[in-house]
């Protein structure tokens, strides 16, 4: 019995010693519970949102930033820039006295210079660059925007001026420089690594100019950053930033409730009701630049017939899907472009649910007795489609109403995408998340003829009229004129319906009520520079 | 005694030999390339393949390969983890102390709680206290640990918020790993927040220790109680009582010493169960020990890691078993004669 009372005494001592929020480090430290480990510490090399959230805005800066509210470009490391009259040369003036991180593996001897920017982009551009293929590096984002064909040369024209030469005018060029992937690295650090024969270290022990510097990474456990004292925007409020890696959704939620996490990524939609009642946590949401859609394989009959596509679209109940699949945490989509985009066309009506009209259209198209088709449902959970299988089941039931017999198909994710690119599907439930604010990022990768060949156009739709519209939009830099092209393109899509846009889902994060200064950036990774703790 | 020890050591050697042969054959039994299973290298180009084939004697007979395998084990070259490409021995050195730490605290609790309660229950087996202790013991014995662990988290971490829900230490504390034992590392470190870190580590320890200790404690209670009752019936106890010794004296001098002897043996027998339960506890409480590491490795089909983990854990269990056996014999002359 003596031992029992000892034990209970110990309990009391532990509990009484510190009430749970007043640890000395807690004041100056922030814990973000992430859903997975980062792949590398170089944003150029990745596209995964998990990695970008952890590394990009924390460790690095870009030449330009995107205003999360308006989507406008803001100066960052480049204080100003000029575009030549022919639209093929851009010159950037760099900010003076921007300091790189001082860490236990690198001490910078000079501030940011043009050489750093040139190094950063030449690493991507030049196949014979000493760092191009280091560690098996590939640059998926820059490949997807065809960067190597667009940019012919990057050179320093002064200690703080950099010039980009383009092969053709491209009004989405600046937006690409503002994405999380275009982080500026240190040429001095790279030189030291090369001299000491450890070039691969550049992507595992990172050096940037961002508000925090790298301290340690324990795989599948945590990533630790400390505050960069000489940050050019001023010091961050938090002295320490830890990314606790908690892949399990329920456990992440539990850790938020026990205050072990200050911010958690991707709480499960079904659990949101649970936390909205608590005063110590709150939920943030913002419509992301993404779209979940149902694409028809327009190279296969009967989906090459626009009437069939319209009939299928009329047959489905979008509102029920928003409720059951997205738990109403999404905006109903009218076209591929989310309403937050400056090129959004508000003239396009909301989706119409009309099975009667759908049957008539099918009959007109010569399929009065219905037909058999398959719906491919992607096997993974994505923000733009949290549960494709469930959505497929709802569609299946809706289609049965108009006499269309749908079967559901799913494969392992890699096999799924490979077979999709080969066009084996009748229709597929998938989606797209944009990497920058430019509307072109929705149209070109999803629906252009080039994308139909390279495989990212899931409808395999190639329409010269549509292609002309989106190409012309890129050649002009007058935003009003571009907008009119995009409005027309959306109207054209609405008539042709190569895909049915379902929803623009909201990105959600839950955080401790004491944490302020954190918001969701619809264009990219989370930024924790301004995060601070306030007493409620 | 010497002969007995030699016999035991011989047995230990035989078991280890069998174990190493089994571990070696896993390299072939696992799916995939044996060279990859042994080395753990994810990408093998032709020149490394050639080099390794030579070093591992893969061109020779199985016996030569096995001898090369043993040699590598002996020199600490256990291959790399397929998942992280880090040396396995380094990884095990990081995770094993966490498991040992948790397990030893649970064992301590089971002694310091289980033995006194067992004795208490045996003093008046039909009294209220005796019955109550037996009831608690049987309840604890039948609790499935994954359910019990989750319940503790639900009530004390999520519900009441008294304790953290998992992990070894709050992530904001940066303690450089030296021994791998958290409490020791904190005491060895020279950080300004040592006191707070220590407290935090203890708070992290409490729930998993409680969950893990439940089973061995209840086993201990039942075992000690039965042993005491058994000893109480012996004639030497009656003699001692007849001599006029007080109840406490009889209990301490004649009862306890004889009743606790089999307990030593019990530790050895319990140890393998304890390790299994520790694995489950580690998964439930996100405790970064060897159990969680091994289970993750199974999910990732990380064959070199599974091989090394199995080897380490079996060697550990066998050695502890053997040691307690020897200790038991050392303290019990009767067993030595047998």
UniProtKB/TrEMBL annotation, chain A:
By its UniProt entry, which PROSITE patterns does this protein fall under?
PROKAR_LIPOPROTEIN (PS51257)
Write out the GO cellular component annotations.
ATP-binding cassette (ABC) transporter complex; outer membrane-bounded periplasmic space
Gene Ontology MF term list: peptide transmembrane transporter activity
Q: Which GO terms describe its biological process?
A: peptide transport
Q: Which residues form the signal peptide?
A: none
Pfam families linked: SBP_bac_5 (PF00496)
- Indicate the segments forming the Solute-binding protein family domain, all copies: 74-452
The superkingdom listed in its UniProt entry is Bacteria
Q: Which PANTHER family does the record cross-reference, listed alphabetically? A: ABC TRANSPORTER PERIPLASMIC-BINDING PROTEIN SAPA-RELATED (PTHR30290:SF28), PERIPLASMIC BINDING COMPONENT OF ABC TRANSPORTER (PTHR30290)
Q: What is this protein called?
A: ABC transporter substrate-binding protein
Q: Which organism is it from?
A: Alishewanella jeotgali KCTC 22429
Automatic annotation (TrEMBL), chain B:
Q: List the keywords (alphabetical).
A: Cell inner membrane, Cell membrane, Membrane, Transmembrane, Transmembrane helix, Transport
Zinc as UniProt keyword = no
Q: A Gene Ontology molecular-function term?
A: dipeptide transmembrane transporter activity
Q: Which residues form a coiled coil?
A: none
Its topology with respect to the membrane?
Multi-pass membrane protein
What are the transmembrane regions? 9-30, 102-123, 135-163, 205-224, 267-287, 308-331
For the ABC transmembrane type-1 domain, which residue ranges apply? 96-324
The record's Gene3D superfamilies line, in alphabetical order, gives: MetI-like
The subcellular location is: Cell inner membrane; Cell membrane
Which InterPro entries does this chain map to? MetI-like, MetI-like_sf
- GO CC annotations on file: plasma membrane
What family classification does the UniProt entry report for this protein?
Belongs to the binding-protein-dependent transport system permease family. OppBC subfamily.
PANTHER family recorded? DIPEPTIDE TRANSPORT SYSTEM PERMEASE PROTEIN DPPB-RELATED, PUTRESCINE EXPORT SYSTEM PERMEASE PROTEIN SAPB
What protein name does the entry list?
Peptide ABC transporter
